[in-house]
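dumping these here so i dont lose them again. two proteins, back to back, each one seq then structure tokens. dont judge the mess
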Amino acid sequence: MDTNDLIPIKDNLGLMRDPNTFAIINNSSSQYQNYLRLKKQKEMEGGKIRNIEEEMDSIKDELSEIKSLLRTLINGSK
């Protein structure tokens, strides 16, 4: 495919359209690098959220266990 055959996309300098397949092609390496950086950042944020959810589940389990032990202590002292 010859890059001279590509059609520029209006209002976006980094994107071009292939007239044969109508595919949109990113012609800007800086935009692509920015996309990869943002994708990696979102993946890291997703991992942080999963870790927080796991920690919260663990805290809930431990709190439930503490409540059960307290009930046992209270009922046993009567």
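---- next one ----
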Amino acid sequence: MSGKSGRGDGDDASSFADAMRDVKPLAGRGKTQPPAPPRRARAGEASGPSEFELLHDGERLEGRAPGIDRKHLRRLRAGQVRVGSRVDLHGLEAREARLAVRASLLAAIEAGERCVLVIHGRGHHSPGRPVLKRSLPTWLAEAPLGPRILAFASATPEDGGTGATYVLLRRPSRESR
């Protein structure tokens, strides 16, 4: 690559910025600098909260990351993905449960697991609404988990039904293996 930097590192935005560092705008033109292109998160890097397409069917809870094929959600809903680990939130306050979900999912990601069963209960013993179950999608969307979650769905009756949720994790990228 030619230019002042000569680095050729493939990072076009920083190379361009280096090349244009000494350039001064023409007086009186009133031109503004275009906004920087959005920075994409690298594989495994937290980029902030994620959004899921949420599907509610009565007591069932389901969601999938944007652009994820519905077949992943169908397989998860049917219990066709092997559960690698479980985290039981019974008896925990919301703050403790959030930390337990985060720690368990990060450990599962580190271990290369594909699916975690989060046992949150149906909320029948909670005053008011089911707190843990309703909070789970928000916790899953938070960084650093959000970008690493493909989908989630209420478990089959054998694994706890609507009192538990399967969480499908993204496969680790090849560069992070």
